[in-house]
Amino acid sequence: MANTKGGWRANKWIRAAVPALLLHCSIGTVYCWSLFSQQIGDHIGFSKGATEWAFSLAIFFLGMSAAFLGNVVEKDIHKSSLIATLCFAGGMAGTGAFIWYGGNNPGSLVALIGIYVCYGFIMGVGLGTGYLSPVKTLMLWFHDRKGLATGLAVAGFGAAKAIASPIMEVLLKNLGEGAIYKMFFILAIVYFVMMFIGHLLLKKPSDWHEPAKGEAKPSIISVLKMRKATNYIGIWLMFYLNITCGLALISQEKYIFKCLGLAAFVGVLSTCSAIFNAGGRLGFSAAADKMKDRNTVFKLIFVISIVLTALVVFTGGIVNGSGNVILTTLVIALIMMVNAGYGGGFSNIPTLLSDHYGMSSISAIHGITLSAWGFAGLTGNQMASFIVSATEKAGQSAQAGYQNVLYVTLVLYIISLVLSMFFVQKSENTGEVPEH
């Protein structure tokens, strides 16, 4: 294989950045579920709450598949990227099939369970393997700017919703009433093509060699033992708590905007929050490349989140914000920052892990760490919904419920900062690829 500098075969953009964007911009559309969950529920004869579990299961199985299939990604990125392509596109097509079945048989548990299996489990496996597959490859090609590279790809995951949402809305409008299942068939074909091209292009640098069969390679446990056990526990927990806080607020942001009297601007504000999500993924990770200790980025995210959350809590910003420009601006600033910090946590976690534990087993270690995302997917938005519901049952307003969510996230952000400061050890960010 030619290795001429600048040649397409050895080009880091063609072999790493482009395929990573093709994969992540496809699987990131999982976050579009909230756009049509109510419509799907009405079509198959179930409540919006029942259909929302499809998304929660998708995030859970993303984390679990990443944890259990990390070694597959480590050994063969082409096998893992092909698994991702087939599972994500196949799961989307299967979801469309069960939506069609549910439309013809309203109230059928077969339809609901089928959607759970296809969108939740099968697509979840595609999400986990697709998310992991390009990350190590990016860090190997861009070893001097690992954060920028992973941030670019993960930004694609964050921006996918902003890109796909208007396209999906056009499809739903033009396909006609009750034809939502057709959209899933169309998207399954589109994403299969995008991901398959990414699968074909993805390639590690020719000067990087994984251990051959039979060659000794340290186990994941021995690699993690390179540092104190509390170090990895601290990383996992602060990652989990950041996602939980992010999902708790992001899942309610549209309703919070409406409480502030901004119903007419929900679409614009939601797009802005998606941009901040993607921008945080790229900006925080690129900034971390210039920091001696990459964990400094997490401390920064938590400090800013604590300050803004505390300001909204103590001013009663959500309850008193309607008609008050200052309080409304403060709440919007909090939501945008939470989105940016949520995204920044995702883009910085693989590079933080590589700084601590090296590159030899990074896909497997990153996969295990993504289990935090899986558990947060079951707890973040569900926790927020429970708090809001309990507040309303107690005779208070929905605004008070959203305000109460902030009391919990404030405590969790403080715990995250403590973990980042006292559990996670300092690691020298040299910009080099260890264990090469």
Roughly how much helix do the residues carry, as a percent range?
A: over 70%
- Based on Cα principal axes, name the global outline: globular
Low-confidence region ranges: 1-6, 431-436
Q: What is the number of independent domains?
A: 2
Rg for CA atoms: 21 Å
Described by strand count, sense and barrel closure, the largest sheet is:
none
* SSE sequence, one letter per element: HHHHHHHHHHHHHHHHH
**Strand residue content:** under 5%
Classify the fold: give the CATH topology of the largest domain: Growth Hormone, Chain: A
What's the CATH architecture name of the largest domain? Answer: Up-down Bundle
The CATH homologous superfamily of the largest domain:
MFS general substrate transporter like domains
Mean pLDDT: 88
Number of helices: 17
Strand segment tally: 0
Look at the structure and give the CATH class of the largest domain: Mainly Alpha
Description:
The chain is an all-alpha fold and 436 residues long. Helix 4 runs antiparallel to helix 7, helix 11 packs parallel to helix 14 and helix 12 packs antiparallel against helix 14 (325-357). Helices cover 78% and strands 0% of the residues. The protein has 17 helices and no strands. It has two domains: 12-205, MFS general substrate transporter like domains (Growth Hormone, Chain: A); 220-426, Growth Hormone, Chain: A (Up-down Bundle), CATH 1.20.1250.20. It has helices at 12-27, 33-44, 48-75, 77-104, 109-141, 146-175, 180-201, 220-224, 229-250, 253-259, 266-288, 295-315, 317-320, 325-357, 362-369, 371-393, 398-422. The chain starts with 11 loop residues before the first helix and ends in a 14-residue tail after the last helix.
